Amino acid sequence: MSENLEFKITKLILEHSMKDLIEFADSDVIIVGAGPSGMTAAKYLADKKLKVLVLERKLSFGGGIGGGGNLMHKIVIKSDALKIIKDFEIEYKKTEFEDLYTLDASELISKLATGAINSGAKILFGYSVEDLIVREKPLRVSGVVVKWSAIDLAQLHVDPIFFTGKAILDATGHDAELIKILAKKNPSFAINVKNESSAHAELGEKQVVEFSGKVCDGLYAAGMSVATLHGLYRMGPIFSGMLISGKKVAELISKELGK
Ligand code: 48F
Question: Class of 26-255 per CATH?
């Protein structure tokens, strides 16, 4: 075997990537989107010793967190998310408004990711989910159809590969990409996407948690995809709802998978 460093680097990258990919190509839970709801769900699911794969289209974590509020670096949370903030060891500041706290967007991103990874979730960057695997009798979603994002960016005509999972979580944000694909391509699931409503922060925060959960057998929704599916209000740069939504769905999936 060649002793040059270039060969060794390449061999290690190929072998170790393939080992992970083959291991996670059949996971307990596949989460699509490494935004706040997806990363929160990933930690709590992985804490239950489930095999959790997070697929993220971009080459970075965080989804809509990094932009803070209109590019300012703070985001707001309410006290009902403090337990989660503490689980992830994130610093937060009290404010003059009862029940409202601020924290740094960069810290929220990095510590949500660290928490998910430390608990055992595998997060892969540069993977775009473009379709779902479905089964009839019983009717259910049983996996995702993926391509490297670079293939889409280059507009190459390339067939995708498949990752299977017992539960698939749509944490794709405002676009609710998986739910929309399912609704459009598979009328038998009878999914009606209502599309997100305008801003009402108070109600939006409550509703997004209330409606988070199962879309159909095998597919779940957390975060803003829930608002898009059910026609709920948007809430802007207050993130308690996103975190609590991710945790709520993680608890539901864990229970349904017997953990
Ligand atoms: O948008 P995003 O942050 O989703 P979220 O968890 O949180 C929403 C908030 O950030 C904010 C808000 C709350 O106040 O309104 O917008 O609901 O993160 C979604 C992630 O999913 C990735 C996308 O790049 C982003 O990082 N994503 C979306 N579609 C796909 C995808 C896809 N088809 N394949 C892979 N990744």
Answer: alpha beta
Cβ–ligand 1 contact at 37 (below 6 Å): yes
Contact 171, 227 (CB under 8 A): no
Specify the residue with its C-alpha closest to ligand 1, atom 4: 173
Report the distance separating Cα 134 and Cα 157, nearest Å: 23
Is the CB of residue 174 less than 8 Å from the CB of residue 196? yes
Strand positions, DSSP E, 136-248: 140-148, 161-170, 213-216, 219-221
Supply the Cα-derived Rg of the chain in whole angstroms: 19
pTM: 0.98
63-102 pLDDT, tens digit each: 999 999 999 999 999 999 999 999 999 999 999 999 999 9
Enumerate the domain spans of the chain: 26-255
Which residue lies with its CA nearest to atom 15 of ligand 1? 236
H or E element that contains 13: helix 5-24
CA distance 215 to 194: 13
**Residue 123's closest CA among 29, 2, 8, 212?**
29
Residue 38 Cβ < 6 Å to ligand 1: yes
